[in-house]
Write a structure and sequence with these properties.
By secondary structure, the protein is of the alpha+beta class. The chain has helices at about 5, 140-145, 175-185, 190-195, 225-240, 300-310, 355-365, 410-415, 420-430; strands at about 15-20, 25-35, 40-45, 55-60, 70, 75-85, 90-100, 100-105, 105-110, 120-125, 150-155, 200, 255-260, 265-270, 285-290, 315-320, 330-335, 340-345, 370-375, 380-390, 395-400, 435-440, 445-450, 455-460, 465-470, 480. Strand 17 and strand 18 form a beta hairpin. The protein binds fe (ii) ion.
Amino acid sequence: MHRSDQADPPPFTHGVASGDPTESSIVLWTAVPTEAWGDVEYTVGLDPDFATVVASGRIGPENHVGAVGQHEPEGPVRTVSIRVGGLAEHTVHHYRFQVDGVVSPVGQFATLPSADADIDHVRVGLATCARLASATFEPYADLARARPDLVVHLGDYIYEDGSAPHEPPAECRTDGDYRRRHAQYRREPALQELHRSAPWVAVWDDHDVADDSWRTGAADSDDGRHEWEQRRGAAEGAYFDWIPQEPSTTGPTPMDRRIRLGALADIVVLDARNAARDRPVRESGPALVSPTDDRRIISDEQWAWLEQCVDECPGWLVVCTQTQVSPLRLARLPNLRRRGRVEPLVNPGQWDGYPLEQERLARTLAPVAGRILLCSGDLHGRFHTGVRFADGRLAPEVTTPSIASTPFADAIRTKLPIPTTLLMRWLHRLNPQVSYMDLQSRGSTVLDITDESIRIAAIGPSGTRPRVWRLDRNDPEIRRAEPVPTAATGS
Ligand SMILES: [Fe+2]
């Protein structure tokens, strides 16, 4: 590449994206070189050739929400984002940008149906945990090929560590660090393709800020000190610059969101990581957690909002949160501080580290028993499991595997050389509530939501047959289903 090319890079090298849809509006996003000082034009149409344009305009420098920054090697870019309103509900739209005579790729999104609309099917894609230093982002492209109507990203969209080939080559701490990391991730074609093909809603997890974070600190950051506030603020600023969504207006924190899919389903995205979580009993690694430990994982305001979401949900309630809600016992050990008691060893970073909150969630969700599905990530494995209501019924949960991060079994093997089959047998024996687990695969998940059931497809590499399960209304078991020819490849 010539020096002059570096100084004047082409626009749109980070792709286009849409997100945070409502019945009548959408957030559109792109990035352009700082040298492209012309206004960025946007066009929204009902067809990919823009024969019918329904919205267009110019985004002047005063509307650029993104900061200007040096994002090597493509040269300095600024992110550009705008909420476009006045759109027809439940309608597929196409969009593109233009700056200095260059036209962007064409993206696609659908607006939401009105809250009481009679919708018969929605396809939701779930993704989580994409560490570029671990593997390729191809699973994002596999999910794009499944053509979801909406993508929910459950966190660890970036990883903050400094391992090669991460840019910058050091752990992110400042504004510039996080923005440069986001810019690097967004140069990946597979991630661009998933952003281009569907609107997203996303919630941050620990690595979007710092490993094993809680409200006031993280495993390797100061607890409650000025430095942490600055670091968290930098991560949050970069996140909202690069992810096509605004701070939420439908939930109590910037990341809590309710997406209403007509009368069919409500999707609730709950930030149980960075908004209100108390410091866990142990920052990393398994721990014994007293069943009466009263650490908080979400705030009173979030509980009140969740109760309201339960009350107002007419159909399926799909609650998406970063970490696994259901119990996952890793071993059973005598508790030396409480003689004679044998207690489960758990991952205290999951809801298991917050046992009274885990119980409270099951109580809160009891009114939607038979039409609830919990969705989570963070564990780098696929789990079908559940948390029990007080009356013994199950609130089923799907934990989606990592897009690129090290799979659960590989991470265990770095400490304990044990075959995956033995590890799975061990975990199954300790956890009868887990009906399925895959600790070795990367990938994503597609939910096909209809009135009677949610079909759950494990999306693996292109060309492989998706494994499919079914959750029927009023039956809490996630059961194997026969793949149909169109499964997870568009229907
Ligand atoms: Fe992760």
